[in-house]
Amino acid sequence: MEPALRGILEKVIDDELSDDKLESNYRVFTNFKNRGLIDSVRSAMFGRIYTRTYNAWLDYKSNDETPVSQLEAAEFGRIFEIRSMEIKSKITESASF
């Protein structure tokens, strides 16, 4: 994976893990849960971060006009897997805001 793309993905994750974004998303997803629209605030928040990261990857690749390789897809998975414990921890912390 190109260093620029890796940097973009890491930046998206970092942005999603900011206190302001976590607090805002926690309120939104808590409202959804209270209305019976979702079952888990934390799972929804994790899914949002994954989706934002995945979309950033696909946007980069579509603008780059190169096909996604299996090697890149595997590296994307590793990046998210490496950060997943941090993501889970920060989401759990956000419940105390």
For the structure shown, list the relevant keywords.
single chain; 81% helix; 97 residues
**Main structural class:** mainly alpha
Please estimate the helix content. over 70%
Low-confidence stretches: none
The string of secondary-structure elements, in order, is HHHH
Strand residues, percent: under 5%
Query: Helix segment count?
Result: 4
First CA to last CA: what distance? 36 Å
The major β-sheet equals: none
Q: Judging from the principal axes of the Cα atoms, what is the shape? A: elongated
- Work out the radius of gyration: 15 Å
Number of strands: 0
Structural topology:
Blueprint: H1 3-16, H2 19-34, H3 41-64, H4 70-94
Helix pairs in contact: 1-3, 1-4, 2-3, 3-4
Descriptive report:
The protein is 81% helix and 0% strand. The chain has 97 residues and is mainly alpha-helical. The radius of gyration is 15 Å and the shape is elongated. The termini are far apart.
Give a brief description:
The protein has 97 residues and is mainly α. Helix content is 81%, strand content 0%. Helix 1 runs antiparallel to helix 3 (41-64), helix 2 (19-34) crosses helix 3 (41-64) and helix 3 packs antiparallel against helix 4 (70-94).
